Task: structure prediction
Amino acid sequence: MKSSAPGKIILFGEHAVVYGRPALAVPVAQVQVEVEVVDSPRAGILINAPKINLHAELDALPPDHPVAAVILNLFATLGIPVPASGLEINIASTIPVAAGLGSGAAVSVALIRALALHVERSFSNEQVNELVYEIEKLHHGTPSGIDNTVIAYAKPVYFIKGKPGETFKVGKPFTIVIGDTGVPAPTKETVGDVRRLWLKNSSDFESIFNEIAQLSLIARRSIESGRPEVLGELMNQNHALLQQMTVSSIELDRLTEVARNAGALGAKLSGGGRGGNMIALVNSSDAETVAQALISAGAKQTVVTEVS
Ligand code: PMV
Result:
């Protein structure tokens, strides 16, 4: 049994989403996790995930290991014991790890779907989303839930913490270039730093969050009504607000600037910040030029994706 799940990017609203403001995220189908579950003559559940150097028996992993936790929670939710007969779980991924592209949530989504198929059960997107949110808490502490929602639905989502994500239509497709700084930056830390700054200076941070909320709202309307070209300027504004929140970095500022100079209509960091990815809105004919400019400026990897 095989199942796959896409990566994701946050278009608008990261960090502000932790404080109840809306954010927009879209799936990135160009990068994927694929999980295969096969019967094995050996007893026990063997997990192979070469990308994270994991080759282990389920029994040998701590129960709060993110992959073990998915398997244990899934069978607990189904109300059936973990199969004693042999299973081999192969996890292959083209999603860069710890880069803000949702690799952890994508592994969880694909693993749940593949295991459920194997035991002839099926889950709704909402059930998958809820299960994965529990696992995301192990990875990230107090996540907003945006990653699991966009990846479980594999559709653009307008997300407010604590509410079901709203999927929405894209009036006219648009192209995004994603550039990876190659700098690892744990989201838990940036979220914690923003919280400390917000506690010290809540009125300034609340107004930054309100401005970001406006950008997310305008962006959703523009995407739905087929005017994606206006997103470029909105991205530039969102990036400036993220800089004020101290979550940008020299590398993110440099890559966003390089993308704009190479013809992008706008650019911003995406995700937790300080490292990880930036995104740029481009006319599709400029995608290669912008991607090349990012590589020349030190990006470790680029991905071009069409949002539709
Ligand atoms: O670093 P990512 O792509 O997982 O995104 C984090 C987004 C934040 O808003 C900073 C945190 C959250 O839980 O929403």
Notes: The domain at 2-166 is CATH 3.30.230.10 (Ribosomal Protein S5; domain 2). The radius of gyration is 19 Å.
